[in-house]
Amino acid sequence: MNNFAWVAAGALMTALLFLAGCDVQYQMLYYPSPSTPSEQSIAGTGIRFWPSFSRDYRGYIGGNETGHVKGTFVVFHGNGGIAADREFYAKTLGSFGYRVILAEYPMYGGRKGELGETAFVKDADETVRLAFETFGGPIFLLGESLGCGVVSAVAHSTKVPIDGIVLITPWDSLYSVAKSYYPYLPVRLLLKDSYDNVANLASFRSRIAIVGARQDEIIPIGHARGLYRALASHEVKMWEIEGAGHNDWPMMASPQWWKEVTSFIGKP
Q1: At what angle do helices 221-230 and 174-181 cross, to 10 degrees?
Q2: Which residues contact 192 (CB under 8 A, 6 or more apart)?
Q3: Comparing C-alpha atoms, which of 238, 198, 202, 200 is closest to residue 221?
C-alpha cells in the first residue's frame, strides 16, 4: 500500500471513529424522555407547568410564590429523568423564600428540539431570559451534574444579570471526565460537546457555590475540586457532602446545609 493509500485509510478510520464516538457520547450523556407528564400526575407535588400547560411549556414552577420572595432560582437537572422529578428543589428552596423554576431540556418531558450542548444552552438561555422578564431579579441558577455544564454556559453567554450560581456534583470539563474514563482514546477528537465549566466561568463575577459528593461514583469528586481550584480567584465556596454518591446526595443534605448554601449565594 502506497503512502497516499495509508493516509486515506487513516483519514477514513479517524472519520468513522469520530462519528461513532459522537453517537456513543450522546447515548452515554443524554437519556431523554419522550412523554409529557399530565397535570394530574403532578397535582399535589407543589409544582405546576410553566409558563402554562401547553406544547410550549419550558418547565415547572413552585417554591415561594406568595409574600416576600427573595429571588428566583432556575434549576437545570441531570441527564436522567425529567424536571418534574426534582420537585424537592422547589420545596427546599421555597422554604428559604425563593421562587423556583425547574427548567426542562429539549427532548425531555416530551419537549421538542434537539439533543446537545448547543441546543440545550440556547434553550436554557431563553428560559432564563423569560424568567427575568416575568419576575425580575435577582436570578440565581442551580445546576445538577449535566445541568452544571448548562448553567456555566448560560452564565457565560446570557445578557440576563445572574446574581449567583450553585453547582452540584459538577465536573471541570467534559473532556477531563471522558479522559479519566478512556485514557487511551483521542477523546478530544471524539467529543462533540465540551461543557467546559472552567472556561465558561472564567469571567463570571458573582458568587459560585460548588457542591461535591465525597463518594460520587459517576463524576469523581476530584473534578469538582479541580473546578474549585481553577476558580480560586472568584468569590467561590465549596462544600463536600460526606457519604454521598452521585444520585443519593439529597438524602444527605440537611436543612442546615441548605441554609448555608443559600445564605452564601443570596447575601447582599
Answers
A1: 140
A2: 21, 22, 25, 26, 116, 117
A3: 238
Q: For residue 185, how many other CB atoms are within 10 A of its CB? A: 13
Q: How far apart are CA 189 and CA 125, in angstroms?
A: 27
**How far apart (Å, rounded) are the C-alpha atoms in residues 122 and 124?**
5
The strand pair at 98-103 and 59-63 is best described as: antiparallel
Q: How far apart are alpha carbons 197 and 170 in whole angstroms?
A: 8
pLDDT in tens, 83-131: 999 999 999 999 999 999 999 999 999 999 999 999 999 999 999 999 9
Q: Cα separations (Å) of 265 from 141, 182, 201?
A: 10, 36, 16
Phi-psi category of residue 107: left, alpha or beta, with phi > 0 → left and psi -120 to 50 → alpha: left
User: Are 220 and 244 within 8 A, CB to CB?
Assistant: no
Q: What are phi and psi of 34, to 5 degrees?
A: -80, -10
Determine the length of the chain: 268
Backbone angles phi, psi at 185, to 5 degrees: -105, 150
**pTM for the model:** 0.90
Task: Give the neighbor-by-neighbor strand order of the sheet with 207-213.
Answer: 48-50, 59-63, 98-103, 71-76, 139-144, 164-168, 207-213, 236-241
Residue appearing with cell numbers 410550549: 56
- Residue at grid coordinates 445564605: 263
Q: What is the pLDDT of residues 32-80, one digit of tens each?
A: 988 899 888 898 899 999 998 777 899 999 998 777 899 999 999 999 9
| Alpha carbon distance 90, 48 (integer Å) | 11
Is the separation of the CB atoms in 42 and 238 below 8 Å? no
C-alpha cell at position 105: 431540556
Report d(CA 74, CA 133) in Å as an integer: 13
User: Is the Cβ–Cβ distance between 156 and 125 less than 8 Å?
Assistant: no
